[in-house]
Protein backbone atom coordinates (compact mmCIF):
# COMPACT_ATOMS: atom_id res chain seq x y z
CA UNK A 1 0.00 0.00 0.00
CA UNK A 2 1.24 3.47 -0.87
CA UNK A 3 1.78 5.89 2.01
CA UNK A 4 2.52 9.61 1.77
CA UNK A 5 3.21 12.51 4.10
CA UNK A 6 1.86 15.81 2.80
CA UNK A 7 2.11 19.31 4.27
CA UNK A 8 -1.32 20.89 3.76
CA UNK A 9 -2.47 24.51 3.63
CA UNK A 10 0.99 25.64 2.58
CA UNK A 11 3.12 25.84 -0.55
CA UNK A 12 6.34 25.30 1.43
CA UNK A 13 7.63 22.04 2.84
CA UNK A 14 7.77 21.74 6.65
CA UNK A 15 5.08 24.36 7.14
CA UNK A 16 1.29 24.00 7.26
CA UNK A 17 -0.21 20.83 8.69
CA UNK A 18 1.33 17.43 7.93
CA UNK A 19 -1.04 14.56 7.21
CA UNK A 20 -0.37 10.96 6.29
CA UNK A 21 -2.31 9.57 3.33
CA UNK A 22 -2.71 5.81 2.93
CA UNK A 23 -4.10 4.54 -0.37
CA UNK A 24 -5.70 1.19 0.43
CA UNK A 25 -5.72 -1.71 -2.02
CA UNK A 26 -8.29 -3.75 -0.07
CA UNK A 27 -10.57 -3.23 2.94
CA UNK A 28 -8.83 -3.25 6.33
CA UNK A 29 -10.07 -3.23 9.91
CA UNK A 30 -10.70 -0.12 11.96
CA UNK A 31 -8.15 -1.37 14.49
CA UNK A 32 -5.49 -1.60 11.76
CA UNK A 33 -6.17 1.95 10.58
CA UNK A 34 -6.02 3.21 14.15
CA UNK A 35 -2.68 1.43 14.63
CA UNK A 36 -1.25 3.00 11.47
CA UNK A 37 -2.44 6.44 12.59
CA UNK A 38 -0.78 5.94 15.97
CA UNK A 39 2.41 4.81 14.21
CA UNK A 40 2.43 7.88 11.97
CA UNK A 41 1.75 10.06 15.03
CA UNK A 42 0.49 13.03 13.02
CA UNK A 43 -2.68 14.93 13.86
CA UNK A 44 -4.51 13.02 11.11
CA UNK A 45 -3.96 10.01 8.86
CA UNK A 46 -6.34 9.66 5.91
CA UNK A 47 -7.33 6.28 4.48
CA UNK A 48 -8.77 6.13 0.97
CA UNK A 49 -10.41 3.02 -0.49
CA UNK A 50 -12.03 3.76 -3.84
CA UNK A 51 -13.96 6.96 -3.14
CA UNK A 52 -14.43 6.24 0.59
CA UNK A 53 -12.35 8.51 2.82
CA UNK A 54 -11.82 8.19 6.58
CA UNK A 55 -9.63 10.09 9.03
CA UNK A 56 -7.91 8.98 12.24
CA UNK A 57 -5.91 10.90 14.84
CA UNK A 58 -3.36 8.89 16.83
CA UNK A 59 -6.19 8.23 19.33
CA UNK A 60 -9.61 8.18 17.59
CA UNK A 61 -11.49 8.35 14.29
CA UNK A 62 -12.96 11.78 13.50
CA UNK A 63 -15.98 12.71 11.38
CA UNK A 64 -14.51 15.69 9.50
CA UNK A 65 -10.97 16.74 8.59
CA UNK A 66 -9.93 19.45 6.18
CA UNK A 67 -6.16 19.22 5.93
CA UNK A 68 -6.08 15.44 5.45
CA UNK A 69 -8.74 15.75 2.74
CA UNK A 70 -6.62 18.39 1.03
CA UNK A 71 -3.59 16.11 1.40
CA UNK A 72 -5.45 13.15 -0.12
CA UNK A 73 -6.61 15.18 -3.10
CA UNK A 74 -3.08 16.53 -3.58
CA UNK A 75 -1.69 12.98 -3.71
CA UNK A 76 -4.25 11.95 -6.32
CA UNK A 77 -3.63 15.01 -8.48
CA UNK A 78 0.15 15.05 -8.14
CA UNK A 79 0.52 11.35 -9.01
CA UNK A 80 -1.82 11.59 -12.00
CA UNK A 81 -4.40 9.30 -10.40
CA UNK A 82 -7.00 12.08 -10.81
CA UNK A 83 -7.36 15.12 -13.05
CA UNK A 84 -10.87 16.52 -12.55
CA UNK A 85 -13.35 17.00 -9.71
CA UNK A 86 -13.28 14.39 -6.95
CA UNK A 87 -16.10 13.20 -4.70
CA UNK A 88 -15.18 11.58 -1.39
CA UNK A 89 -17.76 9.63 0.60
CA UNK A 90 -17.22 10.41 4.28
CA UNK A 91 -18.89 10.40 7.68
CA UNK A 92 -19.83 14.03 6.95
CA UNK A 93 -21.48 13.23 3.62
CA UNK A 94 -20.06 13.65 0.13
CA UNK A 95 -17.21 16.15 -0.05
CA UNK A 96 -16.41 17.59 -3.47
CA UNK A 97 -12.84 18.62 -4.26
CA UNK A 98 -11.34 20.27 -7.34
CA UNK A 99 -8.00 21.64 -8.47
CA UNK A 100 -7.82 25.10 -10.02
CA UNK A 101 -5.48 25.90 -12.94
CA UNK A 102 -2.99 27.58 -10.57
CA UNK A 103 -2.71 24.40 -8.47
CA UNK A 104 -4.90 25.57 -5.58
CA UNK A 105 -7.21 22.83 -4.32
CA UNK A 106 -10.76 23.76 -3.31
CA UNK A 107 -13.00 21.71 -1.01
CA UNK A 108 -16.76 21.95 -0.48
CA UNK A 109 -17.46 21.31 3.22
CA UNK A 110 -20.51 21.69 5.48
CA UNK A 111 -20.73 25.00 7.35
CA UNK A 112 -20.84 24.70 11.14
CA UNK A 113 -22.90 27.52 12.60
CA UNK A 114 -21.80 28.75 16.03
CA UNK A 115 -24.33 29.54 18.75
CA UNK A 116 -23.48 31.80 21.70
CA UNK A 117 -23.38 30.08 25.06
CA UNK A 118 -22.07 30.35 28.60
CA UNK A 119 -18.35 30.14 29.33
CA UNK A 120 -17.69 26.53 30.43
CA UNK A 121 -16.36 26.10 33.93
CA UNK A 122 -12.57 26.19 33.99
CA UNK A 123 -12.16 27.47 30.41
CA UNK A 124 -10.71 30.88 31.27
CA UNK A 125 -8.20 29.36 33.67
CA UNK A 126 -7.22 26.66 31.15
CA UNK A 127 -6.65 29.23 28.40
CA UNK A 128 -5.16 31.90 30.64
CA UNK A 129 -7.22 34.64 28.97
CA UNK A 130 -10.61 36.29 29.34
CA UNK A 131 -12.87 35.59 26.33
CA UNK A 132 -14.63 38.36 24.42
CA UNK A 133 -17.25 35.88 23.16
CA UNK A 134 -17.87 32.13 23.51
CA UNK A 135 -20.04 29.86 21.41
CA UNK A 136 -20.27 26.28 20.25
CA UNK A 137 -20.62 24.61 16.88
CA UNK A 138 -21.63 21.02 16.21
CA UNK A 139 -18.03 19.99 16.78
CA UNK A 140 -16.06 22.61 18.66
CA UNK A 141 -16.07 25.43 21.17
CA UNK A 142 -15.23 28.80 19.62
CA UNK A 143 -13.62 31.46 21.78
CA UNK A 144 -12.98 34.99 20.53
CA UNK A 145 -10.28 36.96 22.36
CA UNK A 146 -9.24 40.59 22.11
CA UNK A 147 -6.33 40.54 19.65
CA UNK A 148 -4.11 38.60 17.27
CA UNK A 149 -1.23 38.92 19.75
CA UNK A 150 -3.32 37.26 22.46
CA UNK A 151 -3.98 34.32 20.14
CA UNK A 152 -0.31 34.11 19.18
CA UNK A 153 0.96 34.16 22.76
CA UNK A 154 -1.49 31.62 24.21
CA UNK A 155 0.08 28.92 26.36
CA UNK A 156 -2.95 26.94 27.56
CA UNK A 157 -3.14 24.17 30.12
CA UNK A 158 -3.78 21.30 27.71
CA UNK A 159 -4.78 18.84 30.42
CA UNK A 160 -7.36 21.31 31.74
CA UNK A 161 -8.71 21.91 28.23
CA UNK A 162 -9.41 18.19 27.98
CA UNK A 163 -12.18 18.72 30.54
CA UNK A 164 -14.10 20.95 28.09
CA UNK A 165 -17.02 19.10 26.48
CA UNK A 166 -16.13 19.55 22.80
CA UNK A 167 -14.01 17.95 20.10
CA UNK A 168 -11.69 20.93 20.33
CA UNK A 169 -11.33 24.59 21.29
CA UNK A 170 -10.91 27.21 18.56
CA UNK A 171 -9.39 30.48 19.79
CA UNK A 172 -9.76 33.37 17.34
CA UNK A 173 -9.41 37.13 16.93
CA UNK A 174 -9.42 39.74 14.15
CA UNK A 175 -6.25 39.59 12.07
CA UNK A 176 -3.78 42.35 11.30
CA UNK A 177 -2.70 41.04 7.87
CA UNK A 178 -5.53 38.55 7.32
CA UNK A 179 -9.24 38.79 8.06
CA UNK A 180 -8.95 36.64 11.18
CA UNK A 181 -6.50 34.43 13.02
CA UNK A 182 -6.94 31.28 15.08
CA UNK A 183 -5.37 28.41 16.96
CA UNK A 184 -6.94 25.01 17.60
CA UNK A 185 -6.51 22.73 20.61
CA UNK A 186 -8.04 19.24 20.66
CA UNK A 187 -6.69 17.11 23.53
CA UNK A 188 -9.98 15.16 23.64
CA UNK A 189 -9.06 13.53 20.32
CA UNK A 190 -5.36 13.15 21.02
CA UNK A 191 -4.12 16.39 19.41
CA UNK A 192 -2.72 18.97 21.84
CA UNK A 193 -2.53 21.64 19.13
CA UNK A 194 -3.34 21.15 15.46
CA UNK A 195 -1.10 23.22 13.15
CA UNK A 196 -3.76 24.18 10.54
CA UNK A 197 -7.35 22.95 10.87
CA UNK A 198 -9.63 22.97 7.84
CA UNK A 199 -12.67 21.70 9.75
CA UNK A 200 -12.34 24.49 12.35
CA UNK A 201 -12.69 26.96 9.49
CA UNK A 202 -16.13 25.48 8.79
CA UNK A 203 -17.15 27.33 11.96
CA UNK A 204 -14.77 30.28 11.62
CA UNK A 205 -16.12 31.09 8.14
CA UNK A 206 -19.77 31.73 9.07
CA UNK A 207 -18.73 33.40 12.33
CA UNK A 208 -16.39 35.95 10.74
CA UNK A 209 -18.52 36.40 7.61
CA UNK A 210 -21.37 37.56 9.83
CA UNK A 211 -19.02 39.87 11.73
CA UNK A 212 -17.24 41.33 8.68
CA UNK A 213 -20.10 41.29 6.17
CA UNK A 214 -18.18 39.43 3.47
CA UNK A 215 -18.44 35.85 2.21
CA UNK A 216 -14.82 35.42 1.08
CA UNK A 217 -12.15 35.70 3.77
CA UNK A 218 -8.60 34.61 4.54
CA UNK A 219 -7.66 33.10 7.89
CA UNK A 220 -4.20 32.53 9.32
CA UNK A 221 -3.66 29.77 11.86
CA UNK A 222 -0.92 30.90 14.23
CA UNK A 223 0.60 27.59 15.27
CA UNK A 224 4.39 27.19 15.21
CA UNK A 225 4.19 25.83 11.64
CA UNK A 226 1.47 28.25 10.50
CA UNK A 227 -0.75 28.19 7.46
CA UNK A 228 -3.36 30.08 5.44
CA UNK A 229 -6.92 28.98 4.71
CA UNK A 230 -9.05 30.80 2.12
CA UNK A 231 -12.76 30.43 2.91
CA UNK A 232 -15.94 31.36 1.07
CA UNK A 233 -19.34 30.96 2.71
CA UNK A 234 -21.99 29.66 0.31
CA UNK A 235 -25.26 29.08 2.19
CA UNK A 236 -24.86 26.02 4.37
CA UNK A 237 -21.50 25.15 2.76
CA UNK A 238 -17.99 26.50 3.13
CA UNK A 239 -15.48 26.41 0.28
CA UNK A 240 -11.98 25.92 1.69
CA UNK A 241 -8.97 26.50 -0.53
CA UNK A 242 -5.26 25.91 -0.09
CA UNK A 243 -2.12 24.32 -1.40
CA UNK A 244 -0.13 21.26 -0.37
CA UNK A 245 3.37 19.76 -0.74
CA UNK A 246 4.39 16.09 -0.69
CA UNK A 247 7.40 15.54 1.59
CA UNK A 248 7.52 11.74 1.72
CA UNK A 249 6.26 8.79 -0.29
CA UNK A 250 6.77 5.10 0.32
CA UNK A 251 5.25 1.67 0.71
CA UNK A 252 3.56 0.28 3.80
CA UNK A 253 4.66 -3.35 4.25
CA UNK A 254 2.24 -4.54 6.96
Protein architecture, described:
- The protein is α+β, with helices and mostly antiparallel strands and 254 residues long.
- It folds into two domains: 2-106 and 240-251, Diaminopimelate Epimerase, Chain A, domain 1, CATH 3.10.310; 115-239, Diaminopimelate Epimerase, Chain A, domain 1.
- 20% of the residues lie in helices and 39% in strands.
- It is built from six helices and 18 strands.
- The protein has helices spanning 30-40, 66-78, 123-127, 148-153, 158-161, 201-212, and strands spanning 2-8, 17-23, 44-49, 52-56, 61-62, 86-90, 93-99, 105-110, 115-116, 133-136, 141-144, 169-174, 180-186, 191-194, 216-221, 227-234, 237-242, 244-251.
- The strands form two sheets. Strands 6, 7, 8, 9, 10, 11, 12, 13, 14, 15, 16 and 17 form a twelve-stranded mixed sheet that branches.
- The relative contact order is 0.19.
- The model has no long low-confidence stretch (mean pLDDT 96).
Amino acid sequence: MHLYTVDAFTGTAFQGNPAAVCLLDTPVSDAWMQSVAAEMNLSETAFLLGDSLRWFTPAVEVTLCGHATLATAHVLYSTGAATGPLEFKTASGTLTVNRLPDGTITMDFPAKEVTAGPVPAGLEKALGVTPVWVGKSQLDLLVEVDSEETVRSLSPDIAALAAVDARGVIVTAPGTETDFVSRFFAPNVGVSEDPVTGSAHCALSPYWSARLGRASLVGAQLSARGGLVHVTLAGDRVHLAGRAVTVLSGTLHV
